[in-house]
Each structure stands twice: as C-alpha cells, then as structure tokens.
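User: Earlier you gave me the apo prediction for this protein. Now I'd like the version with NAI bound, so I can compare the two side by side. Same sequence as before, with the ligand SMILES added.
Assistant: Got it. Here's the input I'm using:
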Amino acid sequence: MQLGVIGLGRMGQIVVERVLDAGHDVVAFDLDPEAVATAADAGAEPADSVADLADRLGDEKRIWLMVPAGEAVDATLDDLDPHLSDDDVVVDGGNSYFEDSVRRAEACSAAYLDCGTSGGPAGAELGFSLMVGGPAWAYGELTPVFDAVATGPDGHERMGPAGSGHYVKMIHNGVEYALMQTYGEGFELLHEGRYDLDLENVASVWNNGAVIRSWLLELCEEAFREEGSDLGDVADRIEGGSTGTWTVQEALEQEVPLPLIYTALSERFGSRADDGRFSRRLANRLRYGFGRHEVQRRD
Ligand SMILES: NC(=O)C1=CN([C@@H]2O[C@H](COP(=O)(O)OP(=O)(O)OC[C@H]3O[C@@H](n4cnc5c(N)ncnc54)[C@H](O)[C@@H]3O)[C@@H](O)[C@H]2O)C=CC1
Ligand SMILES: O=C(CO)[C@H](O)[C@H](O)COP(=O)(O)O
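And here is the structure of the complex with NAI:
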C-alpha cells in the first residue's frame, strides 16, 4: 500500500517509520522542509506541497494527517479536497475535537476516518492504541496501515460512525488528566509527609505488582529518577488542556458527573496563575476578617 502522510512532527514521523517498516510506501509532506528531509532519510518519498503529495499518490489515495488539531487540519483539507474523490480515504490521527471531525467527514470528498491516537513518542517502538470512527469500508481499507501504526491487529478498533474515534480519545485524555492528578496527590503527601522517602523507590515497588501499577506510574518513577524526589527545578505549571476541557463540556451537556476529571482540569488552570491564586489570597485575607488570624504577606 502507498500512504501519504501530512504532518511530520513527533507523531507523524513515527507513522512514517512504522508504515515503512511494515513494507508499505510513504509520500510525506510537512510545512517544515527539515521534517520532510527527516522522513525522506527514513525512506519516504518527499513532497513539496499538499498538491504535490496528492499527485504522487495516484488513484485511490490513502492519506494520514498528523498536524496540530484545529486550523491546520481545516487548512490541509482545503488544499487536499480538489484532489480527492469518494474512493479515497483520509485519516485524521491528531487530537481533533469530535464535532469538528463530524463536520469534516460530511464536507470531505473522500471517506473520512477520525482516529484517536494514544501512546505518545514511546509508540515509535511499541506502536499506538488507535480508536477509529467513520465508514466500515474505509476502516477495512486502511487496516494494513492501522496494523503497522498500532501495536498490532489488537491495537486498533473501529468505534463507530464519524466522530466516535475522537470522542473516545477525548474521554481517554480526561481519564489521563485524572490519573495524573491522583498520582500527583499521592506523591505530594508522601513528599510532604512524616517519612523521608525516596519516591523513585516507592514508584518502583508500586510498579512491581501493586494494584496501582501503570505506564503513568512508570513515568512517575522515571521522573523521580531523572529529577530527584523533590522534582528539582520542575515548575508548578501544567500546560495543555484542550481535550480535558472538551471532556468536561461534554459531561455537562450529558449531565454525567465527572468530579475527578473536572478537578484535574481545574488544577491545571489554577497552576497557570502568575501571581498566586486570587481565591487563595482572598481566603487568606478573609481569615483575618472573621477571625483576626494573621494575614500571610508576600516577601
Ligand atoms: N505528542 C503526543 O504525545 C501526541 C500528540 N497527538 C496529536 O497528534 C497531532 C500531532 O502532534 P505532534 O506530532 O505531537 O505535534 P508536533 O508539533 O510535534 O508536529 C506537528 C507537525 O505538523 C506540521 N504542520 C503544522 N501545520 C501544518 C500544515 N498546515 N501542513 C503540514 N504540516 C503542518 C508542523 O510543521 C509539525 O512538523 C496533534 O493533534 C496532537 O494533539 C496525539 C497523541 C499523542
Ligand atoms: O493525547 C495526548 C496523550 O494521550 C497528548 O500528549 C496530549 O497533548 C495530551 O493532552 P494535554 O496536552 O492537554 O496534556
């Protein structure tokens, strides 16, 4: 099979390499010529524009988008659409909002698959977990590519119609936020608590047979090994947040309670206050107001 890949960053290069390793051909494009050169070094045929990539693919085009969610996906689809017909298949493997994917599937001249991708850069060796939405025939057509990009045939599934792949990935990320939050809370108590603990050792022993072992916990162990038990100069600030926000918005719309995921998202927003949390500063001052407790002042 021949696959066009557009977007050759951390994730797109892995798609290129795994598809090449499985014996398929790849045509690759990115706005960044250096990224195209890297893909070409791995064995892909370089393209210098979306139109050039489409020309090089010939009939029955199979194209994987791995660009940032949002405008980059729409811009790429605008450029691609004149070159597409209904026997072509486009996969969006990024973290797109599921309602955008439903809209794009309706507008696209090709069959459109929304594919939630989990596993991060570690997927280069392990392969990814892929959650795919869209027409069954298109999923069937792309199965050799999904087999290559995923951990194997068990690493991908068709979730349902358009939007369902990105819907499942959105909620996966909400779970990811909450898991990070709960590991964070446990390790914070261990760090602040009554014993002087080596947190790498704690994470290591938990990862060996404990109920709460997981890949995220292995990444906690790695973080303590590389940064120290006090996390050294790692800042108290968490970026990202789009998929978690969408998860909470969807929960509100469906009236499903998600207190843990909401709290984790809220902690992220709270971490970004440059000048300390206003609500905490006000609580500090109010304790003086009602109880004449000493106000803690900034240095
Ligand atoms: N990094 C991660 O762990 C994961 C990322 N994702 C999703 O995969 C997608 C890609 O993520 P990364 O590879 O991490 O991002 P990245 O920032 O490493 O790479 C994005 C690439 O897209 C290129 N690009 C941007 N706009 C373009 C356009 N209009 N046409 C062609 N190329 C364009 C950039 O030059 C860059 O090379 C995002 O939607 C992200 O949310 C999904 C799962 C995990
Ligand atoms: O999808 C992912 C992992 O599963 C990406 O790493 C994503 O960027 C994580 O979300 P956020 O940036 O909001 O932390």
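For your comparison, keep in mind: The CA atoms of residues 168 and 205 lie 32 Å apart.
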